[in-house]
Amino acid sequence: MKTTVSATKAEMGKLGGAQAGEAIRAAIAANGAANIILATGASQFDTLAALVEEKDIDWSKVAMFHLDEYIGLPVTHGASFRKYLTERFIEKVDGLGAAHLVNGDADDPKAECARLGELIAKHPIDVALVGIGENGHLAFNDPPADFDTEEAYLVVDLDEACRKQQLGEGWFPTFDDVPKQAISMSIKQIMKSKIIICSVPDERKADAVKGSLEGPVTNTVPASIMQQHPDCRMLLDEASASKLSK
Prior knowledge:
Layout: E1 2-6, H1 9-31, E2 34-38, H2 45-51, E3 62-66, E4 68-70, H3 81-88, E5 98-100, H4 109-121, E6 127-130, E7 153-157, H5 160-168, E8 181-185, H6 187-191, E9 195-200, H7 206-214, E10 232-237
Parallel strand pairs: 1-10, 2-3, 2-6, 3-5, 6-9, 9-10
Antiparallel strand pairs: 4-8, 7-8
Helix pairs in contact: 1-2
């Protein structure tokens, strides 16, 4: 795992966007197309803002998958990840080839997982943009995460720490408003990505960063699994890196 610490969150985002743009252009040059995973949440604001400004990307050759979505939350809700990606990415790039969004409103969430699993199996991922939760989660795989399932997407229960983070970031008015379940990409599916760019700003993530980078690989700190990825770039700001010993 390669770790880079930027002075500010904005500089970290610019680096993440630039690295993602480079990876997308390389995949298109090599294969004629690129498949990407995008994350949401406060950690991705600057990275996505930088990515949509990248030059010389033929977005019509890019297929996008996203990591997770709340179950039962309408796309019109301010916390909807589909709304987030539509407004911050899909509408800002020119002619995106495909956007495979997670339908959290699906009548049968497990069938939605199967649908997405069939799609992503046909699209080997070139680059995944992800973050880390305050509880060390990767996507919505809260601890103890399932490191073994071969399913690409799962129905998961959100733990209290995860739900409190969503409240703290201002996505919901009260704790009771935060959904208790979501559809999440699995750990093994994320790890199949050729390149992982993990952007993690803010001091509130410092403990999770330390556990993910300097602790053992354990499903009680799900993001620690990225230590085993052959090309994972961990991008931090000074605040999120503040508890690292080296």
